[in-house]
Amino acid sequence: MKIEDVCRLAPVVPVLIVEELAHAAPLARALSAGGLKALEVTLRTPCALDAIRAMVDAAPDAVVGAGTLMTPADVYAAVEAGARFGVSPGLSNRVLDAAEDAGLPMLPGVATPSEAMAGMERGLTHLKFFPAEANGGAPVLKAWASPLAGVSFCPTGGIGLGNAKDYLGLSNVVCVGGSWVAPAKLMAAGDWAGIETLAAEAAALPV
Ligand SMILES: O=C(O)C(=O)C[C@H](O)[C@H](O)COP(=O)(O)O
Q1: From ligand 1's centre to the CA of 107, what distance in Å?
Q2: Which of 106, 117, 143, 196 lies 20 to 30 Å from 129, alpha-carbon distance?
Q3: Best of 12, 95, 110, 156 to mutate for ligand 1, by most ligand atoms within 8 A of CB?
């Protein structure tokens, strides 16, 4: 699967911070049942790699990826855990080289045209715009569409159900990322039905 195929699975890629391994399986099932099929597990918690393994087993129709990839070692560990795509906050050539070596499709983050051009020079056609809202939001991506033609973006950072449409309506946006579909409170409460409802709302957003 190429990164563009991952990005096209649903309008929203949930950004997941899994604190408890026991949450991984029911979380993946709830998000997938709600219609969100590409799941990004950030490598920000001690159980993140095991959470990826558990999600791959629990939700076979989901495509589980790893976020917050900062080093080549992160890339190899993510692949070993079963991740099928990778996401980074920024664009690191060391991380991208490792991902190429490991055959892991990547969605690196950029915040400026220069960074986007560095990605284009590597042949990347899909980039994350991060942190989207803090960097000026949808108007910035709109301004990039013509000069940075040929690149599609997955804006992430500060996006929720209310402003996702501003981005998804743009010609150069393929999907958005966000943590709002899996709030820490609902996870702690084991409210998987509530998370499925949030996922279904997100999955119904017009692309
Ligand atoms: O580290 C990564 O690789 C990431 O993907 C970072 C996430 O994109 C944001 O942390 C999500 O931002 P919020 O939706 O505003 O919570």
Answers
A1: 12
A2: 196
A3: 156
With a 6 Å cutoff on the Cβ, whether 155 touches ligand 1 is: no
68 lines ligand 1 (CB under 6 A): yes
Q: At how many degrees (to 10) do helices 72-81 and 48-58 cross?
A: 30
Q: Is the pTM of this model over 0.90?
A: yes
Rounded Cα–Cα distance for residues 107 and 189 (Å): 31
- Partners of 66 in beta bridges: 41, 86
Q: What share of the chain is helix, strand, coil (3-state, %, to 5)?
A: 45, 15, 40
Ligand 1 atom, smallest distance to 44 CA: 1
> What distance in Å separates the CA atoms of residue 107 and residue 56, rounded to the nearest whole number?
20
Class in CATH terms, 3-203: alpha beta
- Where are the domains positioned within the chain? 3-203
SS3 96: helix
Q: What's the confidence (pLDDT) of residue 84? A: 98
Our answer on whether the CB atom of 87 is closer than 6 Å to any ligand 1 atom is: yes
What ipTM was predicted for this assembly? Answer: 0.91
